[in-house]
TrEMBL record:
This is Rod-binding protein. It holds the Pfam family Rod-binding. It comes from the Bacteria. Residues 43-89 form the Flagellar protein FlgJ N-terminal domain. InterPro entries: Flagellar_prot_FlgJ_N. It comes from Novosphingobium album.
Length: 109
């Protein structure tokens, strides 16, 4: 299957072939980022009774963007390990890789 790669600058029109394992690894990282966003959003809802000096919609938007960026970086770095666990659990449902058998993360599967 051919996909179009997305880059931070925009879409790349050069087709790239990706294996099912590489797609699974990317989706697992995206899931980990979503999970982190939900955790951070729940933590932000906590009210310690303080008076918000810099409150308002602008600060709320900034914090949401900050949390999203932190969640994306955390998932990309793999520091929680959640994406790796999800990938490992779901990889057993993939068809066997042809040729070398190497996985997207560089480990033998």
């Amino acid at each position: 299957m051919t996909t179009v790669a997305a880059s931070p600058q925009g879409l790349s029109l050069t087709p790239q072939k990706t294996s099912d394992r590489a797609k699974l690894a990317e989706v697992a990282k995206q899931f980990e980022a979503i999970f982190m966003r939900q955790m951070l959003a729940a933590a932000r809802k906590t009210d310690f009774g303080g008076d918000d000096l810099f409150g308002g919609q602008a600060m709320e938007t900034f914090r949401q963007m900050q949390d999203e960026h932190f969640a994306d970086l955390t998932a990309k770095s793999g520091s929680l390990g959640l994406a790796a666990k999800i990938e490992a659990q779901l990889a057993r449902f993939l068809p066997p890789e042809s040729a070398s058998g190497a996985t997207a993360s560089g480990k033998e599967g």
